[in-house]
Amino acid sequence: MEKIKRREFLNNICPNVALALLGVSLLEACSKEDDPIDQVDGENGYTVNGNSIEIDLSHPFFNILNTQGWMNFTAQKTLLLKIGSTYSAYSNLCPHQGTRDAWSYNSSENIFVCGRHNNSYPTDCISEGTNGGPLQCFNVNKTGNILTVIKS
Ligand code: FES
Fold first, then answer.
1. pLDDT (tens digit, 9 = 90+) per residue, 95-128?
2. Distance from the CA of 135 to the center of ligand 1, in angstroms?
3. Domains in the chain, please, with CATH?
4. What atom in ligand 1 is closest to the CA of residue 99?
5. What CA–CA distance (Å, rounded) separates 131 from 6?
């Protein structure tokens, strides 16, 4: 009977089996950070599935929508706006030069203002801002306490 040398054996077996022999689980061995799997972040009140974000509006993280009426949901690069019981969502990419983190909302004029260069953008998804095109709108759907934002 022919003896198989250790190095030859390791070169010929599946890498996952080799990792399993070393104590690394197959699931760990098969997953990569870049895998296009769903991102689940239910602890923060939302889950992401592809281009869809499901937001649990009853989660404390989103309470600011009830008090302030809007929020820059930076983790998902999305501006959320609540007027009465109606929700809207927009890309937080400023149409001027792409700043994402300098937003405020002017409720009397119903415009978002980017503080980077103080340009303003209507929320109607059509009208151009004072410098650059309109804010990019996302579709939203609300069922109970779940707000689904579909990024396009
Ligand atoms: S980047 Fe927003 S106003 Fe210039």
1. 999 999 999 999 999 999 999 999 999 999 999 9
2. 12
3. 1-34 (no CATH), 39-150 (2.102.10.10)
4. 1
5. 67
pTM of the shown model: 0.74
Q: Among residues 44, 50, 42, 35, which one has the least CA distance to residue 150?
A: 50
Residue 23 pLDDT class (50, 70, 90 cuts): very low
- pLDDT bin (cut points 50, 70, 90) of residue 39 is low
| Choice from 94, 104, 121 to test ligand 1 binding pocket (greatest atom count within 8 A of CB) | 94
Output the CA–CA distances (angstroms, integers) from residue 10 to 2, 16, 18, 21, 88, in the order listed: 16, 11, 7, 10, 56
Ligand 1 neighbours (beta carbon < 6 A): 94, 96-97, 99, 114, 116-117, 119
